[in-house]
Design goal:
The complex is a heterodimer of chains A (about 250) and B (about 375). Chain A is built from 10 helices and no strands. With about 250 residues, chain A is mainly alpha-helical. Chain B folds into 2 domains: about 1-245 and about 360-379, 3-Layer(aba) Sandwich (Rossmann fold), CATH 3.40.50.300; about 250-310, no CATH class. The chains are: A mainly alpha (about 250), B alpha/beta (about 375). The interface of A and B includes residues 19, 86, 94 and 247 of A.
Chain lengths: ~250, ~375
């Protein structure tokens, strides 16, 4: 009976959070469409700088990382809205276990993040002729990067004190991490002092993972995926500490 | 009694079926010595409460008395520093989380998903109690009819009125007929129609055997619900029992007028309880008929008599309200002072003592409620 009730609760939470996501589709649509426009507009520049094959890879993976970092706001909003609506305590007061609540909240946004990346990669492969040397590793990279984004976005969502603060953090943080990662301008073309800072951006490891899978460098992809999973775990730890540790009206969420 | 309670009711995914409780299940909630501190402030300070199946218990007290903290402890949002809490004989503080499905909680503030429809909200909260989809749909249909939500079921919560949001929130707590309902000011800001619908619904749940803990600042609601009362002050229950029993411990005010040749003084035994205001005397009396008889015997026959019986506002003022200027954090001193007040040191001591000594008499709560309703209907 317990298993059956768990299934009922988790499936209802997933369905409900999917409904919430689709009721406000604007941010989701913009994060899906913008990377495609970015790739189309910037492709001539990248191809001129790096050649046909390398330029296509750079414009697709760079755009993917930039806009998936900006899509952190979708994750953060999904968490933050529970604070604004005061519904988090109602979930906590229910018979749903904390893990069930977290799974129910995570699955829809995780799905949205994966969709965004798959769409951009499919666009690159089908329309730009981007080569894929290791499809399985590419899928692994997509999943690991999505998990890292989920952890990061949710962590910021539980730490932010207001919607305005959260939006500013996502916008500035997204651009900063993208820039440091070399997603907008390749690292090789950036000032010398920026390069040692690149590993501090999760986007750098995402680029390593995607580029490795596309060019056949399995070791680079596996190593980068490991780092991304550590980022995901750290974000999840912050989320658990903040979401599950609060008390009543004094709780931050 | 509570020691005899052994097991919680089974609640299948099909939903909890309200039924008449057996003797050993009668005490549904027992809180003993709950303590919760926030720094120097003791939100709960030795909170004791027993609530029986089928009983509506009104928690009354000033802002910050500890009502909402108690509700948060029961719903496991707050972990108490000390004390015990059992629900259906299960340790509700350390027992399995699944016991939470026996509780339907309605928080003070609206806490619904505004972009989702009323139906979506009810679906979610129904599913969280483990109800199957088909059972949920039937429950939603029934609740919508009961709480006048049928026309707005498929509208987003953000687009319905405040009263409809209130009813949706209560419906989300009632879905699945949980045996324990915690309603924290469920009618705050509600219009009379919403208020009437909600009270009707609460009464129906209690008649079906659910225990209801109801906090409110709108005391007439508790009279309408024929609720037993728990008066909370400084984080503890200072009086508990049926309304009639608690009110019987409070004095009436008797207004008296005499003819032109009225007495300059009332009989000596009334001297400390009477105040003259122009041509009228106000007498504080625990037994108005006896005092009136004593007046006649003393040769002071009044030409006008009006007896103001104590009501819940008086009870709240006497027991629940804080002294003017008192803060919410000075519990120990106030309680020590309260305990130290001798029963015979002034007019206010007598009712306080009487009410404090009232014993919970909740075993007859349902009977009393039924009788009162019959009396109201007959009236």
């Amino acid at each position: 009976m317990r298993d059956e009730e768990t299934v009922i609760r988790v499936s209802a939470l997933v369905r409900h959070n999917m409904t919430l996501l689709l009721r406000e589709p604007g941010p989701l649509i913009s994060r899906l469409v913008m990377p495609l426009g970015f790739a189309l507009l910037m492709r001539p520049l990248y191809v001129a700088a790096h050649g046909e094959s390398s330029g296509n890879i750079q414009v697709v993976t760079g755009g993917l990382v930039v806009f998936s970092l900006l899509a952190l706001s979708i994750v953060g909003n999904a968490v933050f809205s529970e604070r604004v609506w005061r519904t988090w305590n109602r979930l906590r007061a229910s018979s749903a276990r904390p893990l069930e609540i977290l799974v129910g909240k995570s699955v829809p946004v995780f799905g949205a993040l994966v969709c965004q990346q798959v769409l951009v990669l499919l666009f690159g492969v089908t329309l730009l002729g981007m080569p894929v040397a290791e499809p399985v590793l590419l899928c692994t990279a997509v999943l690991c990067w999505s998990l890292a984004l989920l952890g990061l976005g949710a962590a910021l969502g539980v730490v932010a004190r207001s919607l305005e603060q959260m939006s500013a953090t996502y916008d500035i943080g997204g651009i900063l991490l993208s820039g440091l990662a070399g997603a907008v301008v390749p690292l090789s073309m950036m000032p010398e002092w920026v390069r040692p800072l690149a590993p501090f951006s999760p986007g750098h490891w995402a680029l390593q993972a995607f580029n490795g899978a596309l060019t056949g460098d399995a070791a680079a992809t596996v190593g980068a995926c490991g780092v991304l999973l550590v980022v995901a775990a750290a974000g999840t730890a912050v989320v658990c500490a903040r979401l599950l540790g609060g008390e009543g009206r004094a709780a931050r969420l | 009694m509570t020691g005899g309670v052994r097991r919680p009711p089974t609640r299948r995914p099909g939903g909890f079926r309200p039924r008449r409780p057996t003797v050993w299940e009668k005490v549904l909630l027992t809180a003993a010595g709950l303590v919760k501190r926030y720094g120097e402030v003791r939100a709960l300070d030795g909170f004791d409460l027993h609530v029986e199946a089928g009983e509506i218990t009104g928690l009354i007290g000033h802002n910050g008395a500890g009502k909402t903290t108690f509700v948060e402890v029961v719903t496991r949002l707050v972990k108490p520093d000390a004390g015990e809490l059992t629900i259906y004989g299960t340790d509700a503080l350390r027992g399995p989380r699944s016991a939470q499905k026996l509780i339907g909680a309605c928080p003070q503030e609206i806490a619904l998903y505004p972009t989702a429809t009323v139906r979506d909200n009810l679906q979610l909260f129904g599913a969280l109690t483990g109800l199957r989809r088909s059972v949920r749909q039937e429950a939603i249909r029934q609740l919508a009819a009961e709480l006048m939500l049928e026309n707005v079921l498929d509208r987003p919560v953000a687009l319905i009125s405040g009263g409809q949001q209130r009813r949706t929130q209560v419906a989300s707590a009632m879905i699945g007929n949980p045996p324990l309902l915690l309603l924290d000011e469920p009618t705050a800001g509600a219009d009379p129609q919403t208020r009437a619908a909600l009270l009707r619904s609460v009464r129906a749940r209690a008649e079906a055997g659910a225990a209801v803990i109801y906090t409110t600042h709108y005391l007439p609601e508790l009279t309408d619900l024929v609720a037993t009362l728990a008066v909370i002050r400084r984080g503890r229950v200072v009086a508990r029992g049926e309304q009639s029993s608690l009110l019987s411990g409070l004095p009436s005010t008797v207004r008296l007028r005499f003819g032109a040749a009225g007495p300059a003084q009332l009989p000596p035994e009334m001297a400390g309880r009477a105040v003259r205001e122009q041509d009228e005397w106000r007498l504080t009396s625990m037994d108005p008929p006896a005092d009136l008889a004593a007046l006649v015997v003393a040769g002071c026959s009044p030409t006008f008599v009006d007896v103001d019986r104590p009501d819940l506002d008086n009870l709240f003022e006497t027991l629940g309200a804080l002294p003017a200027g008192a803060g919410a954090g000075a519990g120990a001193e106030d309680q020590a002072e309260e305990k130290a007040v001798p029963a015979s040191t002034g007019p206010s001591a007598t009712p306080r003592k009487a009410a404090l000594s009232s014993r919970p008499d909740t075993s007859t709560a349902r009977t009393a409620r039924a009788e009162a309703r019959e009396a109201n209907d007959a009236g």
